[in-house]
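Design a sequence for this backbone.
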């Protein structure tokens, strides 16, 4: 990977990883805070555990991986592929959900835009790496 692709990849992976770690920590500490903007109430301890493990574990794990990968250019490609898949998958499924439900609130629309921007960045960086 050249220096011209290494710095932008690091500039994407490091803050994205930190944001994912923060979301994972929020899910672990206060799972209700993650679902409240979507008018969801965690009625049982099992529901809170599901948010902690599913959302918290996934986000924290990916965040740690992306921060770790940001430190060495030879890890950037793999990390960007994973980011494009994960963020792109969320973008596509959120978009499908909005279409199937016939609309969405502001929180969902903001999340859709942010996921679209994140996935576009990851794909653009992968394209730059491919072009050399």
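Sequence:
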């Amino acid at each position: 990977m050249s220096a011209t692709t290494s710095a932008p990849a690091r500039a994407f992976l490091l803050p994205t990883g930190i944001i994912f770690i923060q979301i994972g920590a929020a899910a672990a500490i206060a799972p209700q805070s993650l679902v409240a903007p979507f008018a969801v109430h965690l009625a049982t301890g099992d529901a809170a555990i599901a948010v902690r493990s599913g959302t918290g574990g996934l986000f924290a794990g990916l965040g740690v991986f992306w921060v770790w990968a940001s430190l060495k250019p030879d890890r950037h490609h793999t990390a960007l592929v994973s980011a494009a898949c994960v963020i792109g998958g969320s973008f596509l499924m959120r978009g499908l959900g909005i279409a199937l439900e016939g609309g969405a609130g502001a929180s969902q629309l903001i999340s859709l835009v942010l996921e679209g921007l994140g996935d576009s960045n990851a794909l653009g960086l992968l394209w730059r790496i491919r072009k050399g």
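The first helix runs from residue 3 to 29.
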